[in-house]
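Input.
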Amino acid sequence: MPQEVLTEAAAEMLDWHGSGMSVMEMSHRGKEFGIIYEQAQADLRELLVVPANFKILFMQGGGLAENAIVPLNLSARGSPTGATGSADFVVSGSWSLKSQQEARKYCTVNIAASNESDGHTSLPEPASWQLSHGASYVHICSNETIHGVEYHTLPDLQALGSDAALVVDCSSHVASRPIDWSRVGLAFAGAQKNLGPAGLTLVVVREDLLGHALTVCPSAFNYKTVADNQSMFNTPPTYAIYIAGLVFQWLKRQGGIAAMEALNQAKAALLYDAIDNSQLYLNKVAPHCRSRMNVPFFLRDENLNDAFLTGARADGLLQLKGHKSVGGMRASIYNAMPIEGVQALVDYLHEFQKCRG
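Output.
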């Protein structure tokens, strides 16, 4: 979270703009929260340049829950009313793997491509995808947090001869770079990486994809119902929306998404250069699809892992241990991480190697 946002939220904790209430105490249907909600939605549409024919939904459940909510809403598109359909999945790491496993409960799943054979260290070229006829959507995770692979360009399904909707799980890099909405049918993101606190989920969905939910889809998760009720059918996560709104305003003050993309490119380049030019560290991801948000790396001598983490902690560099499924180290350098923080990590990498050299 940006420090400016935390400071602003602290100052407004007991009394939001003279209302006499904390945001936590507001009715989601009151005029005060209505102001917060409308401003947040407008700022997000402006920041991400969301076209008018897309609805912005503020939902709950997290990105993981959307793995079920998406097929509940989209898999029947083009199928008889209430009937399950099919969807294509590109497996590029742990999160897209979980997505297709969850979707199998609600529809027929086709694995159009997978990078499992190379340990999730590259991305299958779209031209090689085996897309199925009649699939209602194609699901990708555009940034895999655990394995550190990222689509720097979204696939063009029309160019691949598919009329399916592209569904993008962009939880871990939303607002870090522009989105080409001409290629997207639906994008979803948990807020907790770049937008705000956990508990809020953003869904941006093209209007023609609404109204196709399976009959078993809960009303609170039916995208059309949520859109028709301006995200108020179910009581929304009001405080998380408020904090996200402050983040949106902070992003605008930084120069918007284009400025954030340039900064994120610089941060990632700084860290990858340090890893690539070292004798001790290794990143296994193909350079053309390295994540700008999540940088996994390994010590060539893994017997030094504990010493590395202990020294990092002493220097104020926290949460560098890699995911238990892959081991090693991982640096997450989301929007709110300043380049000075990345430089501090790079300095530590050099110092630790020097002491072991």
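The longest helix spans residues 256-276.
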